[in-house]
Here is the input.
Amino acid sequence: MKAQLEISSLSKAFGGNAVLDRVDLEVAACAVSAVIGPNGAGKTTLFNAISGFVPPDRGQITLEGVELVGMPPHRIAELGVGRTFQNLRLFPRLTVLENVLVALDRTERRQSRRRRQVQARALLERAGVSASPDTFASDLSFAEQKFVSLARALACGHRILLLDEPGSGLDPPSLERMYALVRSLAAEGRTILLIEHNLDVVRELAERVVFLDRGRALARGTPAQVFASPEAANSYFGGEPEP
Ligand SMILES: Nc1ncnc2c1ncn2[C@@H]1O[C@H](COP(=O)(O)OP(=O)(O)O)[C@@H](O)[C@H]1O
Ligand SMILES: [Mg+2]
Here is the structure.
């Protein structure tokens, strides 16, 4: 399987504290991959480096052979890399529809406003948002806000989506909705890299997993392989590898 996104020997320190330490990662095209690891392992920093928000100290990040390190975030987004945020970052005083239109106004400038509204409604439906498009984002439950943030990410049309903890704060029915959406995105040819705390989500969605601990990629493979590795077992299962 050819890697679409290749990260090699990526390092980043904040104030002398190594947050990413020579991380290697290959992300396969049109599949779901996951980064797991304890709090503070460097997972979000890895996403920040890929999307250009945090300049790494050393190492390479290439997208289909093109070096991303040194590019500003908007340029990396233009090349097809999109992301969601752990804290969602919706505009609270805009409506659900407006939150998606903000993205479409940038990507679909040539379309009429009417056409963009139709598109935004279709994306909200696709993301499974059940709230009225006229609701203020701040009035939604966290789970509904999360689906709006996914609809907004879809509006950007990115080929590669970095999802930071898509399962957090979701109840079991919402988790099922999120699984279906992420699977359909991969099936239509998008590449998904997600960060997740909830190992059930990883088991459900990911084909490949990398385990990050204190900035180092300590184990990689299928979910079953990584969960059974002594490195991850220590962190997640109190030292006992999962049966
Ligand atoms: N901009 C920053 N400045 C200083 N320290 C940071 C910054 N971003 C992250 N860190 C530190 O880097 C470590 C890893 O953080 P993070 O990547 O958010 O971990 P994770 O997402 O795995 O929980 C933490 O100790 C965090 O405090
Ligand atoms: Mg994080």
Remarks:
- The chain has nine helices and ten strands.
